[in-house]
Design brief:
Rossmann fold, 9 strands, alpha/beta, homodimer, 233 residues, 2 domains, two-stranded antiparallel sheet
Chain lengths: 233, 233
């Protein structure tokens, strides 16, 4: 049975779109997007869900938040939670109940440029301010602390001299859209799992380092092929 | 006139050897190694210097350290100081006197895996413990704080699933040996300089991102060509 994924998103939902395309067209046997939830009533992610017939829920914040989220995840029989540009901390009781089943994508190479307050454009601003020449994408299991938790995958992205927050964000996002679906699919298939001692067992390293770093090229196909190869068994 | 470089090293001096080979055989017009100094009397770097006819000095530590170092740098008419696996903090008065003329190589992608106590094998231990899939090399101007100061160059290095501290260190070191001489040569030629507001003006970004990330391959020639291309004008 395909795993049932809830996507939590605060923004326009481009990672949601990438996940939806992956699990609808390429890997329907692995998982399906069974729910989209957002802390923001006007999030583009909710509109995308509604347009595509996916149950869409605006989450209550405030005192009843954790209980309401637990209920909605149970109601929709959710197996896996994907945080796709979700700016809220997931309540500790949810993290405990879904241990090893919540996966986040972060637009930098953690532990660099992560932690509280480091989201969205702020991440790329910090990368540019630091004069970094290399940034990237991290997919990781979620625990109770922002941007901590076992690394599932990382991919580097070059920084260019004429980069703005927007050009850098776009380059990183392109990798997020490729890396996150493959990583999540491997978790859905049970190939990657969080061990009791907090490691991501089965998570891929680079068998072919040249492929691992052959990105930043204009050819999306190369990037897609290299990422797919990284997760191939 | 070639710039006169002092190399400060605490270890066996493999980066010193790479710098010496570069400025002796490939870029003698840019700079020459005019002095090797170490805080360790038995450092391999001092033995290498003596074998190659380079003035070699074991630095006094303790109260007179800063003054002694200032004297030896002045005596040898040093223009640039290269920290090549040097484990001591350079005294603040030397940093001020040689502002923009002290360059360090660090075996990780700063600001990740840097700071006090993060040197040698400890860096790679921390990278492996963090589950990072991407590490690298940073060359930067030195200021009064460990591993801070304007970035001159960074290069990514992949982490593999079967890496030990030693295999990872060796892979990173191979990039250090290529990147540090090119970066230092560009500083010696005046093409890269520290601005008053603390940026590394003229420092290269990747014009060809595919080349920038095409490393980790067994072919040293590719790596060397890609790094040389990054600094080409």
């Amino acid at each position: 049975m395909p795993k049932r994924i809830a996507v939590l998103a605060s923004g326009r939902g481009s990672n949601l779109e990438a996940l939806y395309a992956h699990f609808t067209h390429r890997a329907p046997a692995d998982a399906q997007i069974a729910l989209v939830a957002s802390d923001k009533r006007d999030a583009g992610a909710l509109a995308f869900a509604e347009r595509n017939g996916i149950p869409a829920v605006a989450l209550e914040m405030g005192a009843g938040h954790a209980a309401a989220l637990a209920t909605v995840l149970a109601t929709h029989r959710i197996d896996l939670v994907a945080l796709a540009g979700y700016l809220r901390l997931v309540p500790a009781e949810i993290v405990r109940a879904y241990r090893g089943r919540i996966v986040n994508v972060h637009p930098a190479l953690l532990p660099a440029f992560g932690g509280k307050g480091m989201y969205g454009e702020r991440v790329h601003q910090a990368v540019l301010a630091a004069g970094a020449r290399v940034t990237g994408v991290t997919v990781h299991f979620v625990d109770e602390v922002y941007d901590r938790g076992a690394t599932i995958a990382q991919w580097p992205v070059p920084v260019f001299s004429d980069d703005t927050v927007h050009t850098l964000a776009a380059r990183v996002l392109r990798v997020e859209h490729r890396l996150f679906p493959h990583a999540l699919a491997a978790v859905a298939r049970g190939e990657i799992r969080l061990t009791d001692d907090g490691r991501a067992d089965g998570a891929p390293y680079r068998a072919r380092p040249d492929a691992a770093f052959a990105l930043g090229t204009p050819e999306d196909d190369d990037l897609a092929r290299n990422i797919a190869a990284a997760f191939a068994r």
